[in-house]
Fold this sequence. Notes:
The longest helix is centred in the last third of the chain and has 28 residues, at 254-281. The protein has twelve helices and ten strands. The chain has helices spanning 19-27, 47-57, 71-82, 101-111, 150-155, 175-180, 193-203, 225-228, 231-248, 254-281, 285-294, 296-315; strands at 6-12, 34-40, 61-65, 87-90, 96-97, 116-124, 130-135, 146-148, 172-174, 208-219. It is an alpha/beta fold. α2 (47-57) links the parallel β2 and β3. Strands 1, 2, 3, 4, 5, 6, 7, 8, 9 and 10 form a ten-stranded mixed beta sheet that branches. It folds into two domains: 6-222, Spore Coat Polysaccharide Biosynthesis Protein SpsA, Chain A (Alpha-Beta Complex), CATH 3.90.550.10; 226-315.
Amino acid sequence: MTAPDISVIIPAWKAGGFIARATESALASSGVTVEVVVVDDASPDDTFSALQALAAKDKRIVIDRLPVNGGPSAARNRAIELASGRFIAVLDADDAMTPDRLARLVAIATERNADIVVDNMIEVDAAGATLGDGRFLKSPDFAAAGDINLQTWIAFNQPMKSGDCLGYLKPLIRRAALDRLDVRYDTTLRNSEDYYLVADLLAGGAHVAYTPDSGYRYTRAAGSISHRLNTADTQAWLAAETRFQARSAGRLSSPEQAALGKRLRALRNVDQFVAAVDALKGRKLGAFFRLLASDVSAAGYTLSTFARIAAGKVLRRKLV
């Protein structure tokens, strides 16, 4: 059979109640041929039986199940193995896309000779209602179409920093670029995996095009990242950052290296803050003060963040 234009890859974890929405939105794509590759990450619920029911109704759906839970990176890597499309489109199980999105992204990839295309997103709540004006990227930096280089990609991926963050964007990627540059998802990560995948591609010379058009419906989870992060996450980030810098050694410009330095400082700050939260929750004051003393620069960030949280409670506003 003729290979599809696009393989939409979806990692699924405890997604039995909503995986149909994501899958059906991809299948409804117009102007391109698609297959949808869904990999169940060893969910303990009815996710795989829901996938079997969907696959029985449409031969464009390819499904698999990991024997043990490996996280979204492992599930996406398995989906890439199974995919046969010229392009890979990333979709999360609780998100969706508009019917015209993929055709527009392929057209941009063709017109601008891009290896990767990213678009702005529409923010929605769990019920699918648009939040605010709907735009995920709000700053003037991303109001117009353009290219995104590695320096920009790094600079707009600072953890717990207010403003636009590019790492949440869901890319369309040429399969040939993934294979040529031998890039796959980092299976040690359970968040920020898209950031590092695109960073590795950019460091290898890939061309990333951006469009402000919004065709991806991103479900905004309740709560701030500080409520969801733990030290395992932040330590995994730091280890991944070390590996990325080692892989990229000798290939980066001075501005790119400077941007990486700022990102590493931000990661260390967040790591200390999360560990400090754990210490205070555990009433381990000695451990708390040892953390502050171990990295004075991070201590300034940690204490100022606590101050903003306290001010937010007084003002009844979310400041962090």
